[in-house]
C-alpha cells in the first residue's frame, strides 16, 4: 500500500520571504494560495555556483561519483511469491529456480557497498568532472525553486538503484544520496542534507535525465 505524506510549506521562500512590512499569518496564507502547486515561479533566480558549492557535502568533497546498483533485482514492486511446496517433479524444479534466482539477484545495501574496498555490487559508476558536478548541484538545488511548491510527497516503495557518493581527500565516502526514481524518493546520510521542498516531485525527472545522460541505468533490467 502506497502512503503519501503531504507537507504544507508555510514559509515563503519564493516571493514573500523578505517582505519589508510584517503581515498577519492569514494574509500570508492567502498570498500562498494565490498560486497553484507546480505553477512556474516567474521571479525565480538561480542559486549561483559559488553558493551551491559552499553547501555540504559539496564543500567537503574531493571527488563525486554517481553509481547504479540493484538493477537486476525487482524490489518490492516486483515481488513474486515463492511457488507452493513441490508435488510434481516440475514443482521441485520451479522451487529450486526461484531460490537460485534469489541468491543470484540478491539486493545490496549502500552501506555494504561503501564498506567494501572493491564493491562488486556497483554495476555502473562515473566519476564526475567539475563541470558535471556543477550541473548536478544545479539540478539538486535549483529545480524545485523554479516552481511554487505547496506540498511534497513520496511513495512507500523506496528501493534505490542509484546513488551520489561524496569522497574525502582520503578517498573515503563521507556522505551520499540514495535515489529511487521508480517511486520518486531520495534519502541521505547524514540525514536532512536537503530541505523537504527541495525534494519535490519536479526534481526526479531532471535528476534521472542527468544520470541517463552520463550513461547510467535508472530502472530494473530483467
Number of strands: 5
Mean pLDDT: 81
Categorize the overall geometry.
globular
Q: What string, H for helix and E for strand, traces the elements in order?
A: HHEHHEHEEEH
Unreliable residue stretches: 1-23
Rg over CA atoms, rounded to whole Å, is 21 Å
Approximate strand percentage? 5-15%
Query: How would you sum up the major sheet?
Result: 5 strands, antiparallel
| Spatial ordering of strands, largest sheet | 2-1-3-4-5
Kindly, what is the distance between the CA atoms of the first and last residues, rounded to a whole number of angstroms?
Answer: 24 Å
Annotation keywords:
222 residues, alpha+beta, 5-stranded antiparallel β-sheet, 6 helices, 5 strands, 14% strand, globular
Task: Explain the overall architecture.
This protein is an alpha+beta fold and 222 residues long. Strand 4 (173-180) and strand 5 form a beta hairpin. It is globular, with a radius of gyration of 21 Å. The chain has six helices and five strands, in the order ααβααβαβββα. It is 27% helix and 14% strand. Strands 2-1-3-4-5 form a five-stranded antiparallel sheet.
What is the strand and helix layout of this fold?
Layout: H1 25-32, H2 49-53, E1 63-69, H3 89-104, H4 110-115, E2 122-127, H5 130-142, E3 162-167, E4 173-180, E5 185-189, H6 203-213
Antiparallel strand pairs: 1-2, 1-3, 3-4, 4-5
Amino acid at each position: 500500500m502506497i502512503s503519501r505524506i503531504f507537507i504544507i510549506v508555510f514559509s515563503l521562500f519564493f516571493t514573500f520571504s523578505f517582505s519589508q512590512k510584517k503581515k498577519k499569518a492569514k494574509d500570508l496564507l492567502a498570498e500562498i494560495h494565490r498560486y497553484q502547486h507546480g505553477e512556474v515561479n516567474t521571479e525565480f533566480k538561480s542559486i549561483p555556483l559559488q553558493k551551491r558549492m559552499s553547501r555540504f557535502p559539496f564543500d567537503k568533497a574531493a571527488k563525486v561519483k554517481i553509481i547504479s546498483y540493484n538493477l537486476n533485482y525487482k524490489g518490492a514492486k516486483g515481488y513474486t511469491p515463492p511457488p507452493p511446496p513441490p508435488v510434481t517433479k516440475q514443482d521441485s524444479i520451479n522451487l529450486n529456480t526461484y531460490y537460485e534466482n534469489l541468491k543470484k539477484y540478491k539486493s545490496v545495501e549502500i552501506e555494504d557497498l561503501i564498506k567494501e574496498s572493491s564493491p562488486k555490487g556497483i554495476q555502473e559508476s562515473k566519476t564526475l568532472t567539475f563541470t558535471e558536478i556543477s550541473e548536478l548541484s544545479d539540478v539538486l538545488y535549483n529545480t524545485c525553486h523554479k516552481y511554487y511548491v505547496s506540498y511534497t510527497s513520496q511513495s512507500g516503495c523506496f528501493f534505490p538503484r542509484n546513488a551520489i557518493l561524496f569522497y574525502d581527500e582520503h578517498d573515503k565516502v563521507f556522505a551520499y544520496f540514495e535515489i529511487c526514481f521508480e517511486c520518486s524518493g531520495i534519502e541521505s546520510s547524514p540525514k536532512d542534507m536537503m530541505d523537504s521542498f527541495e525534494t519535490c516531485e519536479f526534481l526526479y525527472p531532471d535528476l534521472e535525465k542527468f544520470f541517463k545522460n552520463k550513461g547510467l541505468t535508472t530502472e530494473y533490467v530483467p
